[in-house]
Design a protein that fits this description.
This protein is mainly β. 13% of the residues lie in helices and 36% in strands.
């Protein structure tokens, strides 16, 4: 089956998403879809709907996918290929004024195999954990809340990503592939094998902003208004975070009457932490929003390493210290705002402990409160009286090295 269309700005104005329906007869074991267009002239995303709804999404990362009963291209869900009306879902992300010609080819059954993830690498030796002061009954875990795999536009399989997380010292890594949940299956087992908590996540991705939905929750329909993302994630027991709210053409611009509980205040795109933009946004948005961070890791060649920056989350102790912490403990720590965000695993940390502020590894920095008042930090572990509102550690030239709510 071959479908040819010329997409125009008028099509995108009508809807940023276009469904191309096709009929799947009974007994079909698999389908294969191929999309071709001139990528120098625009960007068209790719996905799949079956008769029951969502079946997968790869955005602009792929031009081909296979869906079958036993296997599917990463980003897509394997399972029964039910007879009925399916649809190729196109996202009209960048459509030039002159329009863009697209060709969609559909094979029933698939003529080639689905792409698969690479074999798991050996489990690396864990980087020594940091022993940070904490309230009684709590333990601080090193977390990165934003990373991608082959299930969207990352270059690593899930096991490869888990191995890298262990190598850089992370206790928790949220795997947040774009607009899909195909990476959820097997994530817990992979995490147990490597000794790291792989927190299920999905980056709800649109051209008006991105948000990470954390937890083993159903797929979030990115085509719906962002207001519905908030209620959907909350009702499913997950947590929603606004991602990189000031990042280029993906800055957050969705209107909301109810705000998510989290926001990715520190993202790799904060290229110079003497810039005050992210902190100014947090100040305007509201300090009741819990700050987190994410490396947004995709590919080592990008030069944006995993685990930079790091969010430390204080979770209830009692789990096996040699194994991964339960994801629900991590979500609970986030819900209660028990976080401390810092530039890297070994960087200075500022945290709240026993109703005090504790600066670890911050000798020579300045403790700065919400009013801009500064106090020098002298020593490796220094305690200060704490008041309400956020605090941060700065270098003498005003570069932020750590923040805490």
């Amino acid at each position: 089956m071959r479908i040819t269309r010329t997409l125009t700005p008028e099509d995108r104005a009508a809807s940023p998403y276009l469904e191309l329906p096709f009929e799947v007869p009974p007994g079909t074991p698999s389908i294969e879809v191929r999309l071709s267009y001139n990528r120098d002239h625009g960007v068209v995303d790719l996905g799949c709907l079956d008769p029951h709804g969502f079946r997968g999404w790869s955005g602009g990362a792929r031009s081909r996918y296979v869906v079958g009963s036993a296997e599917a291209t990463p980003g897509y869900l394997p399972g029964p290929v039910d007879a009925g009306v399916w649809a190729v879902l196109l996202g009209l992300h960048r459509v030039p004024a002159a329009g863009i010609d697209v060709v969609v080819e559909i094979d029933l059954p698939a003529t080639g195999p689905a792409e698969t993830e690479p074999a798991p690498p050996p489990v690396p030796e864990r980087r020594p954990r940091r022993d940070l002061p904490a309230d009684s009954g709590l333990t601080w875990l090193a977390c990165d809340f934003h990373a991608h795999t082959l299930h969207s536009d990352g270059s690593f399989g899930r096991a490869e990503l888990a191995a890298l997380a262990v190598d850089v010292g992370l206790d928790v890594l949220a795997v947040t592939d774009h607009n899909t949940v195909s990476h959820f299956a097997g994530l817990a087992e992979i995490g147990r094998n490597f000794g790291v908590t792989l927190l299920p996540g999905q980056e709800v991705t649109t051209d008006r902003g991105h948000a990470n939905a954390f937890g083993s929750i159903p797929w979030v329909d990115f085509r719906q208004p962002a207001e519905l993302w908030v209620s959907h994630v909350e009702s499913a027991g997950g947590l929603l975070s606004i991602n990189h709210p000031l990042m280029g053409d993906f800055a957050w611009s969705h209107p909301l009457t109810r705000r998510p509980p989290l926001a990715e205040i520190w993202h790799w795109s904060w290229l110079d932490t003497r810039w005050t933009g992210p902190l100014a946004w947090w100040n305007a948005w509201g300090w009741d929003t819990v700050p987190i961070s994410g490396s947004d890791f995709h590919n080592p060649a990008d030069g944006r390493p995993l685990g930079v920056p790091v969010t430390w989350v204080a979770v209830e102790s009692g789990f096996d210290a040699e194994g991964p912490a339960p994801g629900e403990l991590v979500l609970d720590g986030l819900r209660h705002g028990r976080v401390a965000v810092t530039s890297a695993f070994d960087a200075p940390v500022l945290m709240r402990v026993d109703d005090e502020l504790v600066a670890v590894g911050g000798d020579g920095t300045l403790l700065t409160d919400r009013f801009g008042h500064r106090r020098p930090v002298h020593g490796d572990v220094v305690r200060f009286r704490a008041a309400d509102g956020p605090y941060r550690l700065e270098t003498p030239d005003a570069a932020v090295v750590a923040i805490t709510p």
